[in-house]
Amino acid sequence: MYGGSPVTLVPITYKGGIYQHDIVIDLIEDLGGYIIQKHVIAAEVVLQCFVPREDIDLIRQIAKPLFGEVTDTPLVGTEIAIVSMSLEIHHLPHPSCDIAEYVRRIGAKSNMVSLARGPGKRIAGLNDEERDVINEHDIAVYLLGNFESCIEYKMPTLRRGIEVPIVLCGGPDTETLKKIIDPPVDGYVGNVGRFMRRTKEADEIEKLDEIIAEIIRVLEKKREEIQKDPLSVSPARLMGLINEKVPAIHGVTSPTPLTVQMAGLRVKLPYDTFAGDLRKLEIEDGILIGDIAEVVPSRMRDYILVKILPFSETNMVI
Amino acid sequence: MPAIDYFEVECPEPLGAEYYRQITNDVLLDHNLLRVIHKLHIYIDPKVPIFVAVGILKKITTRVRVGDFANVNPLEGKITLVISDETYLAPMLRIFWQKFGKEHVEQPDRFTVILYDVKADLKEIEEIIVADPSESLYKDLIYAFRCIAPEGFRLRSEKFSKEKFSFVASENTLTENIDEIIQEKFACMGEVP
Fold first, then answer.
1. Which chain A residues have a beta carbon less than 8 Å from that of B154?
2. B116 near B77, Cβ under 8 Å?
3. Which of A118, A152, A213, B79 has the greatest number of CB atoms lying within 10 Å of its CB?
4. What is the pLDDT of residues B58-89, one digit of tens each?
C-alpha cells in the first residue's frame, strides 16, 4: 500500500477462556492486527496484540459471549531494560525483580540488565557490552540507591554512551533527583531506592504504579517522535512475516523468539546463519527487509537485531 | 519479639537514614537477629564513604532441646516422638543413634520417631540438647551487616566478641582513625568498646 491514510494500531491485551479463543485470533488477524504474544495459562488465554483503534469495540462485542476482556496495555510492543546495579541480595529480588515483573503485567518485555561494576560510588562503572545491550532497548529504567550524593556522583558514569531514554529511580524525592542530575534524563521517580522487603502494601504498589506512569509518559513521547518520521514498516508486521516465512523461528525455545520493539525487532536466531536470509526476505512488491531495515548482530547472545529505517531514509512506507 | 533497647541510624542525609533504618529492621527481622541485639548504632556517611555499625549483644541461651520441637509420648515400652519442626530432625537422629544404637531408633515417617527399649525416662529425652544456634551467631551477624551495608563497601573490618561488636565498611582503604570513630559511636550508646 503506497500512500493513503495508515491504520493506527493500538496495543491491547485480551484475556479470556481457552474455549473458542481462535475466533478472537482470527478476528484480530482479519482486521489487520497482529498478535505479539500468546500465553496459555491453564484454561486461560492472554493475547498481547496490536489492533486498529476503530475496531476495539468490535473485538469487545465478539469477545463478550466468550467472557473475554479487552484492556488497554500501552507497553505492549516495547522492550524495557531494568538496569540493576548488581545481582547481589542487596538489589534482588527487591526492588529490581518487583519492578521488572510489574512492567511485564502491562505488556512490556522487560530484561534485567545487571552491571558488573554497578555498586559503590567511586568504583561504579559501565562497560561497553552493558552500554550496547542497554542501547538495544526502547527505554532504560535505572534503579539506584538511597543516597543523594552517591547518585549525583555515579550517574554521569552510568549514563555515558546511553542513547535511549532513561527513567531514573532513586531514594531521594523526585525534586531532589531533578536537581542533582545534569544534563537531565527523561523521567524521574523519587522515593524508590534500595529496600529489602516485598512490595505488597498499598503505598508500595502505588510507587510501582508511579514508575509505570513515568515509563508510559516517556515512551509516549518517543512514540510521538517516531510518528513525525514514520517507520517504513510496522515492527509487528515484520514479526508476522518472519513467523510465516522463517520456519526455524518455531524451533526457538525462548519465551519470545521474536521480540517486538518500538522501532525494530529482536530475532532470536543465530546471526551468522540467518542474517543473510532475513535481508533477502520479501515483504511485498519486491521490497526486501534489507531495503527498509538494518539487520545487525545483537550484543545479546548471537541474536539478530532488525532496526527499521524511517520514511525519510527509504522514501517508502509499506 | 523483644525490641532493641537502643536503635539509631546516623547519616548526614535524613532521608537516607530513614531508608537504612528500614533496611536494617527488615534484614535483622528476616535473619531472626533482633532477639540477640540489645543496642545498635549505625553511622553512614556516603561522602567519605563509610558505614559503621556498633552494638551490644544480649546474653541468651539459644540451645535447642528435643522437648522444644517434639512431643514425647511413652507407651508400652516404647517412646514415640511426634516432630513439629523438621529443622533439627537430622542432628536429633544422629544423637539418638549414638546414644541408643540404630536398632533402637525407628522412623516410620517424616514426623514420627519411635525409640524401643531405651533406658531413659521422658524428662531425660526431652532435655537432650540437639543444636546450639549461637555457634553460628557471629557468622549470621556478619552476613546480616554485609546485607545492610551499601554493596560497594567491600573493604571491611569486623570485631565480634561475646558482648560487643563493631562492623566498619568502606569502598576506600580504611583509615587509621576508625578506632576513634568506633569509640565515638559506642559513646553515643553510653558504652565503651
1. 120
2. yes
3. A118
4. 877 678 899 888 999 988 888 999 998 888 89
Average pLDDT, chain A: 93
Contact B152 A123 (CB under 8 A): yes
Which of B15, B47, B151 comes nearest A88 by C-beta?
Answer: B151
Cβ <8 Å between A146 and B16: yes
CA B32, distance to chain mean position in Å, is 6
A133: nearest Cα among A254, A302, A299, A294: A299
**Interval B51-65: pLDDT, tens:** 999 999 987 767 889
Q: Residue B184 phi/psi, 5° resolution?
A: -60, -40
Nearest CA to A173 out of A186, A187, A191 is that of A191
CB distance from B19 to chain A under 8 Å? yes
Are the beta carbons of A121 and B22 separated by less than 8 Å? no
Residues A154/A124, Cβ–Cβ less than 8 Å:
yes
ipTM of this complex: 0.87
**How many Cα atoms are found within 13 Å in the side-chain-facing hemisphere of A145?**
28
User: In the structure grid, which three cell numbers stand for residue A62, read together?
Assistant: 465478539
| C-alpha grid cell, residue A44 | 486461560
Residue with cell 534482588: A92
* Chain A residues touching B147 at Cβ < 8 A: 89-90, 196
Nearby residues of B177 by Cβ (< 8 Å), 6 or more positions away:
none
Report residues of chain B scoring pLDDT below 70: 1-2, 61
CA distance A34 to A260: 11
Entry pTM: 0.87
Q: What Rg, from alpha-carbon coordinates, does chain A have? A: 20
Q: Flag whether pLDDT at A6 surpasses 70.
A: no
Give the C-alpha distances (Å, rounded to integers) separating B34 from B20, B26, B60, B188.
16, 10, 12, 20
Q: Does B147 touch chain A (CB under 8 A)?
A: yes
pLDDT tens string A118-152: 999 999 999 999 999 999 999 999 999 999 999 99
* Beta pairing partners, A267: A258, A304
Is A119–B47 a contact, with Cβ atoms under 8 angstroms apart? no
Tell me the pLDDT tens digit for each residue of A186-229.
999 999 999 999 999 999 999 999 999 999 999 999 999 998 99
Instruction: Tell me the shortest Cα–Cα distance from B27 to chain A, in angstroms.
Output: 7
Q: Which residues contact B37 (CB under 8 A, 6 or more apart)?
A: B4, B28, B55, B56, B57, B58
Between the CA of residue A27 and those of A5, A14, A22, A45, A59, what are the distances in Å?
A: 22, 12, 8, 15, 7
The backbone torsions φ and ψ at residue B8, rounded to the nearest 5 degrees and listed phi first, read -130, 140
**Residue in B closest to A192 by C-alpha:** B19
- Judged by CB atoms closer than 8 Å, whether chains meet at B19 and A195 is answered as yes
